[in-house]
Amino acid sequence: MLNTLSGRFLILTTVFVMLAEVLIFVPSVARFREDFLLNRLERAQIASLALLADDMLATELEAELLENAGVFNVVLRRDEVRQLVLSSPIPGEIATTYDLRMASGWTLIRDALMQLWHAENRIIRVIGEPVRDAGLLIEITMETDPLRAAMLDYGLRILWLSLVISVITASLLFLAVRVFLVRPIKGVVGHMQRYARAPEDSRGVIRPSSSVRELREAEEALLALQTELTHALKQRERLAQLGGAVAKVSHDLRNILTSAQLFTDRIETSEDPLVRRMAPKLVGSITRAVSLCEGTLAFGRAEEPAPTLTWFRLHDVARDVVASERLATGETGTDIENAVPEDLMLRADPEQMFRVLLNLVRNARQALETAGITGRITLSACESEADWQIEVADTGPGLPPKAREHLFTPFQGGIRKGGSGLGLAISEELVRGHGGTLTLASTGEDGTVFAIRLPRGDGTF
């Protein structure tokens, strides 16, 4: 009970209502004390008027009047003359005097609290104004036990009434919270639990129905989350199936390319000058294709293999990339320029860097072709004491906003329509395997630039 939201709300409501009642209780007790003293003054004034009407009252009758008024003596001031009207022996010294004529609210509250604090019976003097302008002031002497007993009785009745009110209020609020808040929250939690047991079942997706704005917003947020997660799970299943298919295709394709590689070895012995010139490129392409198939199979098992680091001239790798892409563009297609310095030496995996640059250049070429323009693609590089910087820049139309959101996410970051988005994802993973970064440096109407940063380290990576 205490660990539930409604149970704690019940307790807090009871406490707060009681606190509010306490804040009301103190002024109420002070007001009760003032009314009690004013009542004694009024009764004393009535008793004194009886004596003024007949100066020859018996002593027994005076004592009875004082007893009925609850005082020891009565003093009236009329026409600037102070007159002891009724009197009887006072059993002790007067402890203090209270003047009710000009007493402020804080003074009355303070005096009431002090009265409750002092448990002993004391003699006090009370001064007030006579009712109906029957003089300038009236003064009485009385004991405090009856006053304190009446205040305690009144306070206890107020506290019991406050407790009953707080319990009733808290119970009503408890029921209201159970109906209007806790029950809908339990419904949302139930949807979450059912969805967690079977996230692939679309029947577990919540349908917002609450009329409370905050709960409605929570239901809509949960709906968006469940919908996105369901799509992600379905996509993961499709990716797993696609990965299995790709692994099978790569396995068979590797065997076919291995046979083709054997045939190209014989082509290299041909006497035809054209064949002898083209054979090394063909051999290199088939070798890379075999390596790619093997890498794909390794990726299907775990991830991209660790790079094999060697020193090589980046210009030569860039030249092979340009040559491969120029075969696809033809003589009148996009101009691809190799601006990498010929003496720039790089320590990395040459095959993986070839794949990275090829993916970037091919994406740029396809973006230009999709836009229907003939532009320029430039490969450039430089080095510093900390790292190597490689850039692939094009003069294309720039990347659309949607492509930038999931740029390096497989099957979501495709730049052209129909693209899978694998090229950038693979390139980013390969560069990350070198301890570097692949980022989108800039994009806009004047073109797009991708930047690669590879740390130099201590030469041992």
Give the helices and strands, then pairings:
Elements: H1 5-53, H2 59-69, E1 73-78, E2 81-86, E3 94-99, H3 105-117, E4 123-128, E5 137-143, H4 145-197, H5 213-267, H6 273-301, E6 310-313, H7 314-329, E7 335-338, E8 345-348, H8 350-371, E9 376-383, E10 387-394, H9 401-405, H10 422-433, E11 437-444, E12 447-455
Helix pairs in contact: 1-2, 1-3, 1-4, 4-5, 5-6, 7-8, 8-10
Description of the structure:
- The radius of gyration is 49 Å and the shape is rod-shaped.
- Among the domains are: 5-170, no CATH class; 309-455, Histidine kinase-like ATPase, C-terminal domain (Heat Shock Protein 90, 2-Layer Sandwich), CATH 3.30.565.10.
- Strand 11 and strand 12 (447-455) form a beta hairpin.
- The two termini are 61 Å apart.
- It is built from ten helices and twelve strands.
- A five-stranded mixed sheet has the order 2-1-5-4-3. A five-stranded mixed sheet has the order 7-9-10-12-11. A two-stranded antiparallel ribbon has the order 6-8.
- It has helices spanning 5-53, 59-69, 105-117, 145-197, 213-267, 273-301, 314-329, 350-371, 401-405, 422-433; strands at residues 73-78, 81-86, 94-99, 123-128, 137-143, 310-313, 335-338, 345-348, 376-383, 387-394, 437-444, 447-455.
- InterPro entries: HATPase_C_sf (IPR036890), HATPase_dom (IPR003594), His_kinase_dom (IPR005467), HisK_dim/P_dom (IPR003661), HisK_dim/P_sf (IPR036097), Sig_transdc_His_kin-like_C (IPR004358).
- It holds the Pfam family HATPase_c.
